[in-house]
Amino acid sequence: YRLPGFGELNWHEFFTHLYESGYKGNMVIEHEDPVFDGARRLEGFTIGGKFLRKTLLV
Asked: Which is the most buried residue in 11, 14, 19, 32, by most CB within 10 A?
């Protein structure tokens, strides 16, 4: 698994579909990227969070 922004999933399309379908629930995105494991784990959270905020325009 890769952090948001590094894998194959089109996150903008994914969130657009959720929005258009009226989804109002919660979502959990887990950090399981082996590239950002161990000492780089916090860096992975930071990078993934920035990407998601940009994608969601928050």
From this structure: 11
Give whole-number Cα distances, 45 to 6, 40, 57, in Å: 13, 9, 18
Residue 36: CB atoms within 10 Å: 20
Q: What pLDDT, on the 0 to 100 scale, is given for residue 57?
A: 76
pLDDT digits (tens, 9 = 90+) for 10-49: 999 999 999 999 999 999 999 999 999 999 999 999 999 9
Domain boundaries, the chain: 11-56
| pTM: predicted TM-score of the whole model, two decimal places | 0.80
